Amino acid sequence: MMQEIEFIKFNPTENMTVLVKTKHFMEEYEDIAAKIMAYSCLNAEQVGFIEEPQMTGTDSRLQMAGGEFCGNACMSLAAFIASGKMLSPDCSTTILMEVSGTDEIVRCNVKNVMGLYRCNMTVPKPTKIEKQTWVVEGEELLITMIYYQEAVHAVWETGELNPSLRRKAETLAQSINSSYEVNLVGVLLYDLETGELSPLIYVPDLNSMMWERGCGSGTGSLGAYLAWKQQACISQPVKQPGGEMHVKTEWNAGAITEVKIEGTVGIVAEGKAFIQMIEEEVVG
Predict the structure, then answer these.
(1) Whole-number Å distance between alpha carbons of 22 and 9
(2) 138 lies in the same domain as 247
C-alpha cells in the first residue's frame, strides 16, 4: 500500500531532520520513519511527527518515531511554527512545546536571522550523573553516564576521532543498550584539546545508529557534564562536524538548575513523499 506523507525538512547544524505533518497511527511511526530516513527517500538522520498539543498554552506537540527526546527536532518544530507566524527579520517569538522523552514543557526562543532561525532552547536536566567503568574490546574505559527520563548519554573524553574509536563507541552504545531500557543511547566523544564533540546516537526501536554531524541533546549533555565536572556554571561553544552550537548550564547549590542550547535552523524543503507501507497479512 502506497502512502502519501506531507513533510518539512530542516537543517539544524547539518543534523538533517524531517518532521511529518500528516496524521498517522502511532504504530506506523517507526515504519514511516525508517523509510523516510533512507537514502532512497529523504535521506534524513531523524524523523518526528507533529501532533496536536494536549496542554493549554502550548503551541504544538512533537513525537519522535523512537519515543526519544531530540533537541534539534524541537528547534526545527519551533522554527517551523515561527515561520508560520511570518516572523519579520530580526524579530523573535517564544514557542512552547510538548515533546516525547520528557514531561517538561520545552521553551524555545526563535529569532529570524536573514531567513534562518536562531533558536535558544531549554532542554531537560539530567536526573543523575555518575562515572562508570565499561570494558570494551578488553579495554577498561572510564565513562561519565548522564541519565534522563527515557535516555542515557555517555561522555567519553578522547583524542581525535579515528576508526578504532568509532568502533569502540558503537560497541559501547550496544552494551549500554543491553543494560538499560531506554529509548535512546548517546555516546559523546569529546576531544579535550580541540573542544570538538563527535556524537553517536543509537535509537534501538528504529535500529538506527548514526554519527550525527550536530546533536542538540548531546550538546546539552556535554554542558551538564562540564558543569558537573567543574562544579560551576558554564557557557561555551561546542564544535561539531556540522558546525557550532552553544550550551549554557546553570549550577547552584551543588546541582544543575537549567540547561540551554542554542543553534541555527534552516528550512530546506517542504512537500510530499510516497512510501510503500507494510501490509498486514490477513489470516482466514
Answers:
(1) 14
(2) yes
Q: Which residue has the cell 512545546?
A: 97
Q: How far is CA 30 from the centre of its chain?
A: 16
The half-sphere exposure of 7 on its side-chain side, counting CA atoms within 13 A, is 27
- Within-domain flag for 281: no
For residue 87 the three cell numbers come to: 516572523
What is the distance of C-alpha 83 from the center of its chain?
Answer: 21
Kindly state the cell numbers that stand for 12.
Answer: 539544524
Give a yes or no: residue 162 inside a domain.
yes
112-146 CB burial, b ≥16 within 10 A, e <16: beeeebbbbbbbbbbeebeeeebebeeeebebbbb
Domains identified in the chain, total number: 2
pLDDT digits 0-9 by tens, 202-250: 999 899 999 999 999 999 999 999 999 999 999 999 999 999 999 999 9
Pairing type for strands 255-276 and 116-123 reads antiparallel
**What is the pTM for the complete model shown?**
0.92
Residues 80 and 64 in one domain: yes
| CATH code for the domain in which residue 68 is found | 3.10.310.10
Q: Is residue 284 part of a domain?
A: no
Question: Helix H segments across the chain?
Answer: 29-37, 71-84, 163-179, 216-230
What is d(CA 33, CA 49) in angstroms, rounded to the nearest whole number? Answer: 9
Cell of 254: 551543588
Strands 139-147 and 255-276: unpaired
Print the domain residue range for 164: 128-262
The residues that bridge with 256 in the sheet, in sequence order, are: 251
Residue type, 132: Q
